[in-house]
Amino acid sequence: MEERRSFGARRGFSGRSGFPPKPVEIGKEYEVDVQETSRRGEGIARIQGLVTFIPNTKPGDHVKIRITRISRRFAEAEVVKKREAEKEEE
User: Fold this and answer.
1) pLDDT at 90 > cutoff 50
2) What pLDDT was estimated at residue 89?
3) What is the per-residue pLDDT across 15-30, written as a single tens digit (0 to 9) for each?
4) CB neighbours of 59 closer than 8 A, spacing ≥ 6?
5) What SS3 class is residue 34?
6) 30-47 pLDDT per residue, tens
7) 87 C-beta neighbours (distance < 10 Å), count
8) pLDDT higher than threshold 70 for residue 87
9) What are the sequence ranges of the domains in the chain?
10) 2-32 CB burial, b ≥16 within 10 A, e <16
C-alpha cells in the first residue's frame, strides 16, 4: 500500500494563513495620525497594529483615509481628507 503525505497538514496548516484577521477592510474609511515615513517616502500609520502606507503624507498629519489594498503584513490607503500638522508660530 502506498503512503500519501498531506503537505498542508504536516505543519498544522488548516487552509488558513498564519496571520490573524485584518482590522481593516478594502473601501472602508479611517481617521489616522501619520507616525513615520517609509523608505519610499510614504507616510506610515498603524490601525490596531497593522502598518498602513499612505502616499503624500508626512509624520504629524491627521488624515482620513480609504483602504485600497490589504496584504499579509500591511495595508495601503489613499487620502480622502487631509488636515496638516499644526504649524509652529515664528
Assistant:
1) no
2) 46
3) 555 667 889 999 999 9
4) 34, 35, 36, 37, 43, 85
5) coil
6) 999 999 999 999 999 999
7) 6
8) no
9) 29-83
10) eeeeeeeeeeeeeeeeeeeebebeeeeebeb
Who contacts 27 (Cβ-Cβ below 8 Å, separation ≥6)? 66, 67
Whole-angstrom distance, CA of residue 8 vs CA of residue 63: 42
What is the grid cell recorded at 83? 488636515
User: What cell numbers appear for 34 in the block?
Assistant: 501619520
User: Which residues have a Cβ under 8 Å from the Cβ of 43 and sit 6 or more positions away?
Assistant: 34, 36, 37, 53, 54, 55, 56, 57, 58, 59, 61, 63
Contact criterion met (CB below 8 Å) for 57 and 35: no
For residue 44 the three cell numbers come to: 506610515
- CATH, range 29-83: 2.40.50.140
What cell numbers appear for 54 in the block? 499612505
- Amino acid letter, 3: E
